[in-house]
Amino acid sequence: MPGTSLPNTELFNPTLQALHSLGGSGTNMEIHDEVVKILGLTDQQIQLLRDPGNSRKTEIASRLAWSRTWLKRYGVIDNPRMGVWILTSLGQSTRELDPAEVVASVARRRENWKYHATSSRIGLDVAEDSSDEIEDDEQWRATVYDLILRMKPDAFERLVQRILRESGFDHVEITGRMGDGGIDGIGVVRIGGFLSFRVLFQCKRWKSSVGARTVRDFRGAMMGRTDKGLIVTTGNFTQDAMREARRDGAYNIDLIDGEQLIDKLKELSLGVTTKEFVVEEVTVHPDFFANI
């Protein structure tokens, strides 16, 4: 992709195309990787930061989040659960979008929401423009991100330990010792109450990106101890690191970046709680009063 920035609507069609290529559904990471493939982005373009003060998220990750929200409002995609997106029936029959029409359609709906809110004369919250929604989302995420970066390294390790326990791991221990190859802890995952396997994990409270060398070194430390590893970072991973983690013929290593970490904190209500509000739409029928 030429240039160093992404116009707001440029990723509408690549996002839609990615979901079609993925069989109609995909996670945030799967959509990200597929869009990168579709656009032929270089590692330098992928790692381009949207905001120098927000080093946990690349520009393309930010734009993809923006695009998914608008496409959901337009009706071609939906997210049945956090981090998972699917094509709606309209999306399944749509192969290409007119970005200008998407923006205009969502804007018309917003005006309609405002009209109903005014005519109802009820002081309830009404759905706002998705750009405002994303701005609010960015604000709480930035707050959580800043709080995590202020934590001491051992406190961050305990936070990861708590997340793993809340996610179903047993016997989660912090084992970080000098000369231990960067292994910070170990946990046990049980499947169906019968099978279990050990998972070694590493915690990286970094602002910068985690590269392939870190993944290779961690895999070397895993040798002979387990066949499953996990790296958790507050930053992000380079494309080389992601390819190395999934390399054929080597122990698989799962990667959790800063965005996924914050999503998991919200999902588990660890330091982040949510409250749902019901939106009421009231319509007045003058003919009822005229004909009574």
Question: Layout of SSEs?
Answer:
Layout: H1 12-21, E1 25-27, H2 28-39, H3 43-46, H4 59-74, E2 77-81, E3 84-87, H5 89-92, H6 99-120, H7 130-150, H8 153-166, E4 170-174, E5 185-191, E6 195-204, E7 209-210, H9 212-222, E8 229-233, E9 236-237, H10 239-245, E10 253-256, H11 258-268, H12 286-290
Parallel strand pairs: 6-8, 7-9, 8-10
Antiparallel strand pairs: 1-3, 2-3, 4-5, 5-6
Helix pairs in contact: 1-2, 4-6, 9-10
Walk me through this protein's architecture:
The chain is an alpha/beta fold and 292 residues long. The protein has twelve helices and ten strands. The protein has helices at 12-21, 28-39, 43-46, 59-74, 89-92, 99-120, 130-150, 153-166, 212-222, 239-245, 258-268, 286-290, and strands at residues 25-27, 77-81, 84-87, 170-174, 185-191, 195-204, 209-210, 229-233, 236-237, 253-256. The strands form three sheets. Strands 4-5-6-8-10 form a five-stranded mixed β-sheet, with helices on both faces. A hairpin with a 3-residue loop joins strand 5 and strand 6 (195-204). The longest helix has 22 residues, at 99-120. It is globular. The relative contact order is 0.11. The model is unreliable at 1-7 and 114-130 (pLDDT under 50).
